[in-house]
Amino acid sequence: MFGLTFEKILLIGIIAVFLLGPDKLPHYAAQLARLVRQLRDMANGAKDRMRDEMGPEFDDLDWKKLDPRQYDPRRIIREALADEDPLKEQSATISRAEPNPEGAYLKRKRAREAALAALEPAPFDSEAT
Q1: Residue at 126 is within a domain
Q2: What is the value of pTM for the model shown?
Q3: 123 lies in a domain?
């Protein structure tokens, strides 16, 4: 936890003995233990309150699915890019070589406009402006 190893904790303890002295160290150690105990009780109290408010559904939840550490932005982007684009399919079928380049351009433009017209328009809220 927090990258603390046994050696680092021992070093912090030795420094605390020198800085605080042997007469004040037990008092501060007791205060630290009391603080840790209060934090643990607060966390358990919050968990119990959540269990009381949610009822039996609290135990049925899969908390691992709600863990934000499982979301990998690279994977999300890769999956989003893997989805098929309707405009891409039409442009691939139209982009074949044609004898008249201006005609091909107009056909591609019309195909794109038709594909965009087929998509749903963006929502508009007249009261928002």
Answers
A1: no
A2: 0.39
A3: no
User: Which residue range(s) make up the domain with 15?
Assistant: 6-85
As for how many domains the chain has, the answer is 1
Which pair of tokens denotes residue 15?
Answer: 């420094």
Distance, first Cα to last Cα, the chain:
50
Please report, in tens digits, the pLDDT of each residue of the chain (129 residues total): 577 888 998 898 888 888 888 788 889 889 989 999 999 999 999 988 988 888 877 777 777 777 777 787 887 788 878 865 545 555 555 555 545 556 777 787 888 888 777 777 667 777 876
Taking the C-alpha atoms of residue 69 and residue 36, their distance in angstroms, rounded to an integer, is 25
